[in-house]
Fold each of these.
Amino acid sequence: MPLMSSDGSTPDVPLSEGLEHTLDEWEKAAAAVLRKSRKLADDAPDTDVWSRLGTTTLDGIAVTPLGTPSLSADLPDGGLPGQAPFTRGSTATRELDGWDVRAWFTDPDPERTAKDVVTDLENGVNSLWLSVGTGGVRIDALATILEPVFVDLAAIAIDAPFEPVQAAQALAGVIADKAVTPAPGTSLGGDPIGARFRGRGETSLDVVEELARLAHPLGIRAVTVDATAVHDAGASDVQELAYSLAAGATYLRVLTEAGFTVEEAAGLIDFRYAATDEQFPTIAKLRAARRLWNRVVELSGVTSAAAGQLQHAVTSRPMMSRYDPYVNMLRTTVAAFSAGVGGAASVTVLPFDEPLGLPEPFSRRIARNTSSLLISESHVAAVTDPAGGSHAVEKLTDDLARAAWQLFGQIDATGSLDAALDLVRSAVDETVSARALDIAKRTRPLTGVSEFPNLHEQLPERRPYDRPLEVHRYGGEFEALRDDRAADPVFLASMGTVAGYTARATFAANLLAAGGVDTVVAGPTEGVDDLLAAYDEAGKPSVVALVGNDKAYEAWGADLVTALRVAGATYVVLAGKADVGADTTIAMGLDALAFLRSIRQELGA
């Protein structure tokens, strides 16, 4: 039916307008905006907008700023949702309630956990993910905690690295006592390879067969390839994907050698991936993971629906911050959106206070409501694979899949599990170093940590974990400086009027605060004598940072530096690039961590 205007006529709606314009026109329009904002030189060619607006992942894969038909013209067919290669989804349609909202529980206090389980299930959660055994929910309390749970409706996934068989037996006993068919997605969660990589828990592959013998009669999953093990160590998207394929292939071999058919073995394995606030790479990663796993099992002889990967996505732990933890709500919202759009069957939003300790009722509520709002109010799950057909996403999916397949081949060719994990660790270490440099230079800004920190914030107090995971948090080096605040401040020598110095004073204060260094601002000043009086009133801090405009620097910057040194300043920093005799300068693009460490040394911290 054609669109009709209020007077009954058919309006002229240019639905094909975008197809009538050329790339040259887009480049020209985009270049004009960038030049206006001074992000592109006046004499730079318009084609430079691609490099200015595009990004490159840590795997060296380009994320284009604009999707064009040429990007996806030669890509393999992604198929339909629910059909091989499952790029567009492991099932044909979404459930009516969208994805499975899965809450995480690790509190050793059985009474608190039992209460949290009921509260979450009554308020939007569909399934439970329990850390069981050492460091988590007590095994002997599992039956009591799950007593009010309808396990035929709510899937139960456990994670018990230290006592995988005992925990699995306890869950199997609960299911047997209830005499029901467990809900799809229920998993015993064994992952000795992940335990070996993390260096915690049972690492023998022998437990895989034991868990499979328990799971198979119940129709549930026995093994979870938990790729967050490498993600938590700092892995890139490609490394996470390649590791998951290598671990999954190893479990397939173990299970088939134990007597299971390859289709039975594939049906006993599920996968867990991290979802970050980099939305397009996350969407593409989950799509690529399904395509890759389909290829592995296809080569193994699986042609049924068992080739569809069952995915559980968890919002990234490394991306979360201990400082300004409320920003984690924003990070996890984007991550949950990406996981849902990417087609994960289950999504866990970690509470915003997860880096601080055991979550409280408020943070648990925010976590479960994040998915509920995305599904019920934003209708993100109304369409299966909403990113499908996007030229940029299809290209990124293909690039990730090809790079991960190549790395998987290298891992699989090592010949032993220990050698394979050594190769993965070496690759992850390189990624950690590359990311650390980006974070140090603040080209990957972390709000509340490396950018816009609140040095005087009061962090919420949380009960400590019994045995916390080792996580390489992206902002860890900045947070370590914040943990050990410098006792003495830096004096901001604000030259001239408020309008003249505010921009650079704000930049310097935020930079120093990110390293646990406080500042004292002089306020508007009219010259060297005026500023020296403010310096004396501030107690003559040993480190001074000049903040003003270029005109003030040229007029009296050198005289001020000389006077400050005579007055007692031992180290002078200048915000900008003028030559006034300062010891160092600061500007965008500097290695912030190196600078902060040097300043702290000057302060005696």
Note: Residues 23-53 form one domain.
Amino acid sequence: MGVGDVSKRILLGRKLRSAQLGESLLPKRIALPVFASDALSSVAYAPDEIFIMLSLAGASAYVWSWKVAIAVAVVMAAVIASYRQTVRAYPSGGGDYEVARVNLGPAAGATVASALLVDYVLTVAVSISAGSQYAAAAIPLVQGHEVAVAVGMVLLLMAVNLRGIRESGLVFAWPTYAFMVAVLGMCLFGFGELAMGDLPRVESADLEITPEPGMEQPLTTLGLLFLLARAFSSGCVALTGVETISNGVPAFRRPKSKNAATTLLLLGLIAISMMVSVIVLARQMGLKYVDPHDLDRLTRDGEPLPAGYDQSAVIAQIARAVFHDFPPGFYLVVTVTAIILVLAANTAFNGFPVLGSLLAKDGLAPRALGSRGDRLAYSNGIVFLAVLAIALIVIFDAETTRLIQLYIVGVFVSFNLSQAGMIRHWTRALDREHDPTLRRRMQRSRVINAIGLSFTAVVLVVVLVTKFLAGAWITVLAMAFFYVVMRGIKGHYDKVNDELAADDEDKVLPTRVHAIVLVSKLHKPTLRALAFAKATRPNALEGVYVSVDQAETARLLEEWDRRNTGVPLKVLHSPYREVVKPIVEYASAIRRSNPRGVVAVYIPEYVVGRWWEQLLHNQTALRLKGRLLFSPGVMVTSVPYQLRSSQIAQEREERDERRVRPGDLRRGRVGQGRGRNRQIQR
């Protein structure tokens, strides 16, 4: 086992057999933190965005904050109820993509897929960026290095997810539950203080907010509606991540659909409770919160704040005030909030690779995305997602407020098409079903999806109107880019399939096989290649040597005649010392002289056991094969010759396979091996 293999095993762990896929399925207690961390983490920044939008009209607009929160909660409840129907109807894990593709057609499916791909990438970028901002609030050393910290977090998540979904779930379960307990506990403690009349004020309560230019006067009805629409659309980031469970149904233990639906219900109850509680508490505690780029709008007693003022996030301000006599409580809330924001990206690391594998299966994405890695995870998809997210984090300087404007367009595009597809699904099912009980159940499900569609359609229109110029146009452009790329990949695969389809002409045998063996020296690899070529019984066989030095050519011809190989040697003179081009031209000339024949080129190659030895050998052979592959009617065959280093490497691998490792006895591998040995001895 080489250094690369050892490093890979340390990073990823032992390989898993395909038959062990069932062992990686998740119970509800693990599936909830794995798939719900994204939606739950929205509680950490959705309130911030609502207060930022309302602050444009000054602190007086905060009176609408709880009403905006209720509106967002109603939409979330409708969407979760709709997705409970989806996971029951489509348990295969295709989620929005499968629903849209099956019921609305391939174009709708590709649209949903492009929206989800953008959403997953932004989920990682937004969550990790928000996590780095919270880390900077708690750890002064991190301030000014948010981008580097965010990139490091993405790489860490990538490494953990490459070890497999079950392992990542076990690692991330306790921080998610700690976040639930910490935030809900903080809210309960705060409401208890509110009931007793002892609710403290947050650190920003004594500040004043200067309205945005042009909004100093009381708002008109139309202006107020537009402001509330902006706040509502920003608060709807709380719905991101809800769809991930419908994409991850295959990862649940049986009964898969029932467990996924139950997890969705728990997610909705917890997320709505946390979000509404945080917003109500923040309003009661006198919070003042503005866009981090507009801190000059905050004043104290009419005076601007000092330079370098750090505006803590909403939850951080509430926790510091609620736990003013208990600092460990504050640090617990801030720490687990930062962790959950990082782990929210883990939801995307579970959803993106699965979606990529489905797209690869349908020919809309490179087939490499459909391959499982050593730990039965879709490794290529995980790495691809990490690269895209890091690029976004670097471009937008890990600033959540800048990234959030790109966020929810893709989510609600997929929501709308999914709900429309589910309505058509139930309509078709009703045409085939005659059982009154089942028909009533289907009609109820269709009504639920229709309500979900009406809500998500309104939100999508509001989001496009209020956020398009603020950055949502970038998301629309990215979705269009992914759509065009996927359709192009699909078109390419379809063309290749048509081109490779077998017909009667493929049964016709070539009229003649002209075999040539490439000769650099008359040594063991060359003699083995000659012997193998003779064994194939071609119509014509010759050795081919490229002459770049007259003295070496003379020595080779002399040795060739002395050994009497029985094969003629063709010498190609190369005055410009090229090796590859004369061989390609010679093979092409043979092919042109007999268009229905085949030219078989045999290339002797060394097989080495160390990676650095590969750099010292076979380079000309690699270039030659690359050129000959583009020559019609030319077949290339590598004839390997194993050097001693390759045999040593093979013996080392065999010893490693025979060595007993920790856990082999428990898995029954040691006993099975000894049983086989006893049978062989008998």
Note: Residues 511-642 form a domain with the Rossmann fold fold (CATH 3.40.50.620).
Amino acid sequence: MNGCQIQNRFFKEKMSGTRSELTWLTALVVDDDELTRQTIAKMISRLGVGRVLQACDGHEALQVLERGAVDIVLADVNMPRINGLSMLETIKGRWPYLPVIMLSGCATMKMAVEAMRLGATDFIVKPFKLEDLEVPLERAARERLILLKNRELREELAKKEEVDRLNRKLERKLSELSKLYAISEAINPAKLEGQMLFQKLVDLAAEITECKGASLAVLDQRTNRLITKAARGGKRDWVEDDIFPALEVNPKLFQVSRMSVAITRLEGKGRTFGASWIASVPIIIGEEVFGVLNVWEKSSGGDLTREDVTLLKALAQRASLAIENQALYEGLYATLTDTLLCLVSTIEAKDPNTKHHSQRVTRWALTLARAMGFSQEEQDLLRLGSYLHDIGKIGIKDWILMKPDTLTPEEMEVIKTHPVIGEKIVSHLGLLPVEKSIIRHHHERWDGTGYPDGLKGEEIPLPARIVAVADVLDAVSSNRVYRRARPLREALEEIAKGAGTQFDPQVVEVLMDLSKDISCPQLEDQ
């Protein structure tokens, strides 16, 4: 049983209110008088000591200690061959973590002082009663625990320097991995673009290297000059213009390894700027230099560490991937969007009455969204979703779509499939969930009687609820093959009647407020 196990057990049993805190002890009683020795052994057993060994003198006691673990020794002072004090001195020399209680029937002050000097835990004068032993035994047990813990700490201390070195190395590695993960997570081309991406790169560069400032400059291929696009700390236009006016002024930045970090010691303007050096790493896209990422002056003073250099390189590599991916994404997204919009235009071109329906619905939806406090990002998602809301009609037969009479129940069921068809068309084209939800749910009703899923109330995504109002508003106020267009005011009245049943009351309320503003360009254009 090691020191920690003993200590845990001791305190657990101590809290139970019994004497069982001594049961883990193995005690050795040393006395040349057999009757006295056996009496003491019985007494400490009654006090709860788990195991008791005996020895008739100091010589035999040392042999017992050689053979096995003993936690406490109770020894008489006056014994033949090796007396108690000599035995105590030997024990403390060979087993320094072993508590010893000295016993004597003819004790003197000098003897007691000598015993304590040699390391005795306690000194008890014979004869003594059972209760006279209890407190010394408990004190010796606590001392044993402390001594064992002390030994454990000493052994750990011997390894501490190596452990500390490994811990420091591990902490540096964990910090580096954590920062690399943060870089990977923070630079998402799907969420950041243009200036936002540049500023994020600059902020990350300053934060991960703990520098006072950072900047990102893009290479102007026409003039071969670096133009600052984002900065943090310092004067925005100072760094590249004064230190890197052109690539040929600082050629070492792009020599040997194209991902090397160049450190330039600053003089003149650099000193007035408050930095003694600037570190730069190029951002490479394909085989061309796109720009350069700079950091300067550690907040704590000193130079960049090896870890800082590794992180700057990783950031520059991630930046090049993000910028390249963003360019590819924007190109693909533009192509995809153009294709989908052409499909919508094809559908609407079949019927002159529905021409530009999607554009008008989109304008209405965006007007409502802005009035409801949508962010620019939310408006962008709403714009594409509302424009494509009827794309599923490409899967509906033309004679049903353009039927001049009222649709039969069977034909109406066919029409109701267009939201699901639309969602299937765009399901593998990379649209975001919000955009797809508009296509699927723009015919759901607030009271739950809509289609295709019978969603109710706020179960219906808010953008889909907005498009539902905009869709009906344009449909009522536009010509159809089966009826003439109704005035916009009548369309608004019909929308108002459907608040709380067909439409979200909040969206209808916003529309009614907008309709009161006669200067609203969206209303005037209708």
Note: The chain has three domains: 3-155, 194-324, 350-525.
Amino acid sequence: MLKLFRFLKPYWWQIIILLIATAVQVYTTLRLPALMADIINNGIVPGNTDYIWMTGLHMILVALISAVASFVSSYFSARVGANFSRDIRTAVFTKIISFNMSDLKDFTTASLLTRTTNDVNQVQSVTMMMLSMMLRAPMFCIIAIIMAIQTAPDMSWIILVGVAAILGTAIMIMSIVMPKFKIFQTLVDRITLLTRENLTGLRVIRAFNNEKVEKDKFVKTNDKMTRLLIFIDRILELQNPLVGIIFNGTTLLCSWVGISLLTKDFAYLGNMTAFAQYVTFVMISFLMLSILFVMLPRANVSAHRINDVLTRTPKINWKSKTNGVPDKSPSVEFKNVDFRYPEAAENVLEKVSFKAMAGETTAFIGSTGSGKSTLINLVPRFYETTGGEILINGLSIKEYAKDDLMKKIGLVPQRGMLFAGTIKSNIKFGAPSASDEQVHKAAEIAQAKNFIEKLPKKYNSLIAQGGTNVSGGQKQRLSIARAICKNPDIFIFDDAFSALDMKTDRKLREALKEITNEAVVLIVAQRVSTIKEADRIVVLNDGKVVGEGKHLELLKTCKVYQEIVKSQLSDKEYENELKLAGKVAHA
């Protein structure tokens, strides 16, 4: 928790105002019992009406000052607390979006959502309480004890009895509740995970008629969290009756001791009344501190979870600025690249080497699990290679600053991801300063113009979060248009044509040729028809390059490629392809 207090530094002057206002409030509030005792001893007992009026007006003025100080204190406490949580939430979000894929795998998405929302809220609530209670309560306590002893020294031992009882109650409750808070936060993560998983996978759940299974999983976790929450609430609620008994017992003790002293000196009435109020202030102060100390463990768990994110050292270190001068001509080169996922037993890629030049289309094909998408993800450095070297424009990707490398790459992922906004804002996502003409041109090349023009608001039509209001093919075409609008040196299509029909696929590839004459094009595909015209096809099998060349060359030389082609064509079509390959080889 203390590590997060660095976020309070920009608000030091507001905290100083809060401290001053709190000190004024404490002083004025504790002056009231003394003034009340003064009225009783010097006004009511001797019957001095003028003194009662004069002191009464003084009390009203003090009460007004106390009210203003309380308002100022509460205002700055809320203001600082809100800004504090905003800054933490921004820092957590900024850190999360700086993570690479390997970093994100260490946290679940649900856990990161909870840390950004629920955990920050917990820390904010306790910080606001600390800004008010941690300052106010000790002041109240110390000054009230001093004034109580000065007012009625014969009754001061009562304070010790009441404080000991309050502290004992708080310690007992904390020892029971503290271990449960960590379990509770874990269950909150689990609830978030199940909710997110079921919402994103709703179609699959319904298609397999598994609503009951998923509901049972959710209900089981929800019931467990509910039982734990009820247990925690029951223990915390014990505090109210126990504190009530302590308060009433202390008041009774004050009355009993005070009345016995009044029989000796009736003028002690004002002192007894003031002492009873001071004891109440002391008890309330310790009660506020005990409530804070009960809430603190839960906030401390949340703070640890937030710090886990903020202090995480990224597994990939980027240069602050690019070291070296990249070639002007775009290229991507793999030199004996190995890759293994963290804690995996075997390499996913092994000794992969190839070079893709500007104006060329290099395609990657292979069976499921052959490492195609993994290879593509190494180019923008989503993962770090475990061996070998990757060069972009002749310069190692480890020498690039992140912004410089990402500017060169236009990525269309396997699953087209759209963001809440408009069609135009999604296409301009990688090029915010792009003109309308550039947006329209990108959509036209991506074969998205036809369906966009049919929409009532055209390019200003709204896109729902995740692109749920457009079809899979439309989502892919808009994702492709986004990459085109960026005008990068390197286009990466990770199975980005899978949702397109053959006709649209062909038109799109033909249109792409017009704008990729000076760019590197990397394509991962499952369909041979998508890549058969590529300048170079790299065939992967179990993470190794088993063939490299053009379509007809590979039909003659690569057994793995032959099997892939044969699985996608009829026997007659396959025989025709083989004959054509034979003629080319003979020529």
Note: The CA atoms of residues 248 and 254 lie 10 Å apart.
